[in-house]
Amino acid sequence: MRQLQPSAILSAACCAAVMLAAAAPAGAATTLPRFGGIVFPGKAEPLPKIDNVEFSGGSAGINVTLNGSNFGTAPVDVPCNQCTPIEVQVLDLAVEGVPEVINVASWTNTSISLPNLTVNPGDALEIDVYSDSVGNAGAWGGVVPREKGLPKITSIKISGSGAALTVTVNGSGFGSAPSGVGQNGNSPFFVFSDVNNASTGTGGERWNAGFCGSYECDGVTMGYVSWSDTQIVMSGFGSSYGSNNWFVNPSDAFCVGVWPSTSTSDGTTGGTAKCGRLPK
């Protein structure tokens, strides 16, 4: 059988791309995925998504498995031990969002294994998975399993956009309204985190609004609307919003952290978290 030379393959691929583009209706927008350095019309690459997180183990170390889709192929810097790869980050709200030093045992398009994670039962976690091929992240928020009694977020509703974004958090165990309700100030009871996918550089730009911890204090305030034991409504970003790439975009991954109003930990222990993606 006759083998085509690389130049012939490239010419054929280029011609096919031209014919496909010409076949598109006039004025139609096309998204061009890449294949071997050649651009073809077609569908945009899907965004990474964490569907669920499995926990196992105990006092010797907690093993975490991320299950989802569109994680992509393993980055060049994983597997790794005692590392902080930009493509997967674990943030423990109990230590004010300090990125954890982790072990990455395996990475596939649908599963990532993080053995012997040094977190404690009851800690609220944010986990981000970044796909360099699409320039966006998927995020998960929740609590390392432990005894009952912690606040629980069941759903988050997003409305509005930009500086006027409104976040409605539904759940239980939030407690009565803290003294800061109605003030546009920093709060040890609520934090909103966003991964700005429009920021340049690998991993996007992660920033916080609301609670201002000693490790990560971006100074972006967020206004309270209401707070009850089962629902929290926050609306509008205040000071520093828009500075240093601290702004929200359609399809950004985001997380919300909540501590009950009875908490005296100043945002370190006893909280919970849930993540999602802003509307397109």
Please describe what this structure looks like.
With 280 residues, the protein is mainly beta. It has 2 domains: 6-39, no CATH class; 49-277, no CATH class. The chain is 6% helix and 41% strand. It is built from 1 helix and 20 strands. The chain has one helix at 6-23, and strands at 34-35, 38-39, 49-58, 61-69, 80-83, 88-92, 98-99, 102-104, 106-107, 111-117, 124-131, 136-143, 152-159, 166-172, 190-196, 205-210, 222-227, 231-237, 253-258, 272-277. The strands form 6 sheets. It has a 4-stranded antiparallel sheet with strand order 3-4-10-9, with no helix packed on it. A 4-stranded antiparallel sheet has the order 7-6-11-12, with no helix packed on it. The protein has a 4-stranded antiparallel sheet with strand order 13-14-18-17, with no helix packed on it. Strand 15 and strand 16 form a beta hairpin. The radius of gyration is 22 Å and the shape is globular. The chain starts with 5 loop residues before the first helix and ends with a strand. Mean pLDDT is 78; it is low at 1-41.
